[in-house]
Design brief:
Blueprint lengths: L29 E4 L4 E4 L9 E6 L10 H20 L3 E8 L4 H18 L4 H34 L6 H39 L8 H24 L7 H20 L7 E4 L4 H13 L3 E4 L2 E4 L1 H6 L15 H4 L17 E6 L7 E2 L10 E4 L1 H13 L3 E7 L3 H15 L6 E2 L5 E2 L4 E7 L2 E3 L2 E2 L10 H7 L2 H9 L7 E3 L4 H26 L15 H22 L4 H28 L7 H17 L16 H25 L6 H21 L2 E5 L5 E5 L2 H51 L4 H17 L11 H11 L7 H14 L6 H18 L5 H5 L2 H9 L1
Length: 860
Amino acid sequence: MATENGGARQLGEWRAPGEGRPRGKAQELTLYNTLTKKKDVFVPLDENGRNVTWYTCGPTVYDAAHLGHARYYITMDILRRVLESHFHYHIMFVMNVTDIDDKIIKRARVKHLLSQHLEQTPDDSKVIEEVLEALTESVQKQQRAKDEVQERFHGEASQPGCQKQRRKDLTERLQVEDAKLQKKQQNLRETQSLQESSQGALNGKAEAASSSSRRDRLIDLGGDDLAEKLDSMHGTSVTDHSIFQKHAAKYEKEFLDDLQQLGCLMPSLLTRVSEFIPEIRAYIDKIHENGMAYANKGSVYFDTQAFRNKEHVYGKLAPQAVNSILLAEDGEADFATSDKKHPSDFALWKSAKPGEPAWESPACAGDPNGKGRPGWHIECSAMASQMLGQAMDIHSGGADLAFPHHENELAQAEAYFHHEHRGHCCGGVPWEPQWVNYFLHAGHLNINGYKMSKSLKNFISIRKALERMEPRVLRLMFAMAPWEKPMTYADSGETMGEAQRKDEVLKSFFARAHALLKKFDPVSAPGLLAMKWLDKEAQLSSELSAARAGVDAALLDSINLAGAMDALFELVRCANRYMDEREASAAADPDLQPRAFLLSEVTQYVAQILGEFGIEGYRSSEAGGNAGSRAAALQGFAGFRGTVRDCAKAGMAAGSADPKGALKDILAAADRVRDKDMPDLGIRLEDRPDGTWIIKDMSADEQQEIRAGEAAARAKEEKKQQEAQEAEMKRQSKDQEKLKKLNKEFASLQAAEDPKKKVKAIKDLWSTLKLLRLTPQDHSFGAEERRVVEVVLSGSRNIHEKQRQGFEAPWSLLNSSEASEADKVKAQSELLQKIKEALPEETEPWLKSIVPQKLEGFSG
């Protein structure tokens, strides 16, 4: 037999495996690339092929993140984890935070104006009228917006060259405008009903809702519309830039908290726009220097025509959207665009409006003293280029960012690097390095037929969602859908229901496997359990191999999470069947028990893949040889709790020397462990009448029911506190009315000549103040004390002249502008003491309960 070098093979010589057989091509990792609209083989820029650079668009921090955002961030977190854990790449993951943007400025300003206005307008009926007026105007404005979009839609969609995808995008835009109109019309009708019910209540025709709840509902219905109207009237008056900074900082913190709650890995680097202003200015100047930007009235615009004229392509990501005014406008929120040369041009730098935060403008803006702020698109181009250089492996975002945001990012970067490293390939084909090699866009999360969004107000905040479901279940739900395609979330809960059912399947699988591993652990019973594989074991081993191959193939295929999950759940189904069969056979023949090592290998593999997706919490650490640790720990803890509980009961029954209150506290603590702490861990502890207990894993439905009950209890307590606050405010209002009346009477009595009437006036004033709980409790020298001194100094015949003169020195000192604070405090103390000494004997009983408290405050 010949060898590779032509020599004869010697007997016993090693032979390469597979020699003589045709070798199939190994499957390569592909990623669905929005740039090519197909799955491309993933080849990192790194010459060693292991280091990957990835830039992802983070949040514009103007409001709370919702479930649609969660879909994107969880999806990209899973893709990142798979690349790192399954394919062993080392990823530099950069995420931006947009903390300078039109939306942030607008939202912070209108929230400030609305809050200020509501504080200054306590009358609910006036607020209702204002909201109605604002909603009416808003409905009319939205009707005009819809009509304009419809007119443009018919103009663009009817063009002969209008592509199918562009027509679809335009149709969706029109549907969104119509949905906004319907929502505003509904809010207007509800507000009108609220006004009628409120008026009916005032007329005795119906019972009105509490003032607080009515106002809250009003703000839900038309607060944004009222705020918009206030902004149009008073927006330029908001000049405190800390309002914008605090607003952005608040929602940035909320976003990072949400990421942690969702179990997402933190980025390698977080780039905040406000920290990159100098780099952004320089980036704009370079684009202008390269001839692809122009200035107008202090703003700087990207010149798409000049960009094309320099052999660049505008429209790589969404060619169907290019030249669509409707679709391009999404990137220019709240910014006038009449100064552009061409409709598809966009702002690189926006000149500042009155009251808005602003920074020194780039040199190319043409105004040495000019100020403004960056456009949305340039921020990402500049920061990504600064941190990752002239090329990166992956850039990701939600599907709605492909156009215009990412399209414009690409154009800006190509314009910036225009003269660097350009050349020609063989055959004279123009060549330049790509700024991004792979664009990954996660599909929308749709709810009831529309994309979940803040503008439609059809969103569920992440925090609200996590009150109803575990982060693990949320991640399961997203992992079971193709990441690059739209996903529907229905109010009926079908999508979430399927994820919860799958979660129950996994919980049951792990719990059952752990119990069998503990029962048939060969380490605990060496030499006593059969180890040899039989047909059932060979079958399960084959199914494990098939699952591994299926998961690998799915993940290589553009990280097909849904396919990988299908393969994993098929393995779980096979393992459950194996456990059924072996449990039944072991009852008849002990040698036919489950083979623990094989079952452990299966559970560890399922836990491993779930872990690579970030789906954790099934106590997968128990899949190995220490299967009984959790059960033992729980039983030990439950036993300790039971002992403490029994001791507390016995102590109460036998009249122990211990205070009963302490024993009750012990019982309450034990019950809290049962009713709160253990359910939080997904465990139900049930007490039995005979003093024993049962431990069970809780289902997702049971946990959700408990959380719902806790939320209802919190809501009830908050309502109770709110009602108490309202009652206290009403009481204080009545007290103030009484005080006004009393002051009026006091003024008339003070004018009387009869000293007894004056003394009576002082007595009545202090007594009433005490009853109304309005007597100052901070030992301050307030108006009440001053009135007493004024009466004394007015020359009451019942007060000795010497006493009267004793008031004059401290009184003058107290009212002197030159006296120090220490001298004034001393004067206050003297005056309070003299009040007690100077007043007639009949006033002593009520003065003793008031004046000494004040004197104690000064004595220290």
